[in-house]
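Why this split exists: single-chain examples teach little about how molecules sit against one another. For that reason, every record in the complexes split bundles all components of an assembly together and asks for one structure covering all of them. Below is a record exactly as it appears in the raw files.
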Amino acid sequence: MLLEPYRVLDCTGQLGWLAGRILADLGADVIKIEPPGAPLDAPDWRANNANKRLLSLDLECEQGRAAFLKMAAAADFLLETAPPGSAQARFFDPDTLAAANAKLIHVSITPFGRTGPRARWQASDIELMAAGGAMSLAGEPDGMPLRVTAPQSNPWAASQAAVGAMVALTGRAASGRGQHVDVSAQAAIVASIAHAPASWDLIGVNPMRAGAFMTGRSVHGAVYRVFWPCRDGYLNFIIYGGVAGRRTNQALAAWMADSGADLGVLADIDWANFDSTQATQDEVDAMEAPIGEFFRSITKAEFLQGAFDREMLGYPVNNVADIAHDPQLEARGFWADLPAPGGGSERHCGGLAMVDGERLAVDRPVPGPGQHSREVLGEFGFGAHEIDALIGDNVVADQ
Amino acid sequence: MTAIGQALGGLKVIEIGGYAAGPWIGKVLANYGATVIHIEARDRPDGFRLQYPPYKDGKKGINRSGCFSYFNDSKYAVTIDVKKPGGLELARRLSDWTDVLVENMRPGVIDRIGLGYQELKKTNPGLIFMSTCNMGQTGPRAATGGFGSQLSALAGFCGLTGDAGGSPQLLYGPYIDFVAALVGAPLILAALDRRRRTGEGSHIDVAQYECGAFFLAGLFYDYHANGKIVERDGNADPVAAPHNAYACKDDEWIATSCWGDDEFKRLAEAAGHPQWAKDKRFKDAAGRRKNAAALDELIGQWTAGLTADQLVDILQGAGVRAYKVNTCADLFTDPQLTHRKTWRVRKHPEIDTQAHYFPGFDLSEQPGDVTAPAPLLAQDNELVFREFLGLSEDEYKELEENGVF
């Protein structure tokens, strides 16, 4: 496995869960640390903590902290999300931890980073998506800024944390020293808006919400529809210009003709010379009318297959159920069925990628409370009596 | 562009392809010290050089694209025409020299060019070869090509954005390309770590569509385990209420949310309306969600009279989660991003100054940097082929005469 020799102590909250999951999929031994009695049944927790082991350890008390420090001295990575300024953040002090283990790679994942004028500001997903610029670009042009309904700040922060952890590991291979990696969710989210900031920076145009239409393509200011109602939802299709766009438009017209659909003005368009930048809104509307009619007659699945067969650009707007049943993911062995608590199995995202033709292994089921407490502590050099004492004092929970 | 002492100093990366998904991985690696070479052909330059605005002064030009430069700072650029005599051999030499190759073409294309993994590993067995594309290298729809902006719809993100019952919404740009790049970069570095221990190279097959699933992992779990299909729901949240964006003075917006009754009480007091917290309709989260329209109206009346900066100062001061809905322009003056030096301005020969994005993480001992502006097309042919690869003057001249560059 890629990261087989390494041990990770994962003390994160939701902002950082995916970072540990990524390292676990890469083959590291990731030990998730949760306080005894913490609820472990939220879908998001379970999805992001598969492939890890679990140690139930109370980090609020002296005994628990001493035990943790002993483990940190022998670990390769520490991932944590302690709020800046909190007692927990003082405990996860980078200098103290580095003094205990110079090789430790310590990754702090926080809303705004460990330092700075707003480091102690509080934020959940919606405030972070606002702070990182993403909300200003989603929603109807004259409507309210929107977030993606499923929290995205967590995976943006956690995935950048995983990159930071691996950059630090690479650095350690040469220097022998670990270091502190400071991750800001806000700054991480800025990556999600592509090159939009360059527009303001270079030409003074502040990009705004585009809604469901593509703007800025026609010299006459015409807008092109992006989302089209179909029989069971929506499709994403755009009348593009360019080589691939013209080929797509032509293929769609042929598909409509094969299906006996009314082509309207599409019948007379010379696609080889079609220039989407020169169309007026009336012309765009006339082209889009028969397309809209055709799309209303087909399903998402029919569009996906038809567009693939005809080498067209465009995809259906999937929901989670559509994706869950996609034969492409099935064929690549994407989903991992892991034993569920109380028997049966539960389905998770499988390994991150295929390496040398094989999917990275996800072979550790989601851990239960205290499940690995004894074995983990034993591996970190705690004797049986010590472990019993920690359990007896309610510092560690056993299965 | 290799800063001595940077964490990835000495790491050699070449990238073949273009647009965002591949080059963004190289950009991040370059920001921490890797030597990254962006390969193009003169008759097929990176599509971002000429297909999308912004251009310097609004004038299109091969070296004037702010879009290309945004994703390619800190790199070298060379041109190779593999169809010209000696061109393929030159690309092979570069592939033998490098530690990492990143390509983001349709499956099979790189094999047809003669630069596929099976071919290259014969002479460079330790090569880390990453292919990133829409669907992955295998499966019934492997051959699908397409844009990340549309793949973001297939992967569920557009469908999860918008009002309940309304149209799905666009996310700006190829959202999923950056998701996939952040999954791809750790994979490359992990494969390199294994190589250090075992000498083994690897072929990494990243499907951008699959990477997207990790950003929605909890939703998939909930569907598989409970049959629940989460759909777009405006700015609503299943737990917090209020939880929304509110219009302020001067066409600005803030986002704010309350995750418990105490936080709502603090918001009500901060707004000068402590009676909101005593209103029966708003006594708990369930009530506040049920009466969200009425509550949003009240909060909106308060926010409309103040600027976003005033509002977030009041709310954060009262211990309530709140932030201005930053526009792109705001990102350049945000005090926290400024503190982190998120924007690194570099001078480009044709674009002049441009602000480059620095990633959301930094290292305490070996901090990264934007080490150079984006390269001009073919800018580093001589440096890379003569100095890095060690071509003789005669070899270089011959290739030049053959039209390889």
